[in-house]
Amino acid sequence: MLKSLFFFVVRFSGFNYIYSKFMGNRIFIVGYHSVRPKIEIDDSVKKVSVDTKMFEDQIKYLINHGHTIIHFSDLAQIKNKKTKKPTIIYFDDGFKDNVLYVLPILKKYNVTGTFFVVPKFADESGGQYMNWEDIKKLSSSGMEIGSHTYSHAILTSIDTRLVSGELVSSKEKIEKEIGNHITTFSYPKGRFNKDIAELVSQAGYLYAITTQYGTNSFDAVVNNQYVLKKIAPRVYENMSDFMVRLYSFNIFYDFRS
Fold it and tell me: What is the pTM of this model?
């Protein structure tokens, strides 16, 4: 109730609009999982899916409000702070709907996305996850592919040796399948610690995204590149909620970092 009241007040008081004007020097990383038509959102994806129309409206909003859509691999080139509202759109887990519905929308608006895939899911080539042909299609369409471990292992729950195996084998398998190097990693369930972040670096990744809320400073992409923060649209939210989550909602998280 309190959060709903906050969203309502900051949106319609004008505070959200004013606050957004002070965020030109922040990096926005907007994370999704599944995107599909409402009639296809069943109980198996209800908690992680966004309706295709809502997703398209969110993409249009970002474009129309001065966000520059980039890849994680572009972060090294924006350290001079000249890029306006640099924004990354990414997707975890490799759901089949990413190639069926997300890709056409991104191509329609000439924007890019980053897709974190799980080789074990792709190897199974069935069900609700993309196979390797789907992933290759994303890559050949100019999308960035990243790793989400080899088997979607919760890294804080397994032995250090197994963590390294999950990180390295995933990177090697994806690179072999798509024919391109990958440099970005997403922690399954957002679970990590300092030692795991170090192993991510040792495995050859340049950036890693957590499930911590907030936007990122330009300094963070240099000094905290394995602990990047995200913005997470919710399936039950409307466009007004999205606008607040994009800007004012992060005031609680950005000022304490």
Answer: 0.95
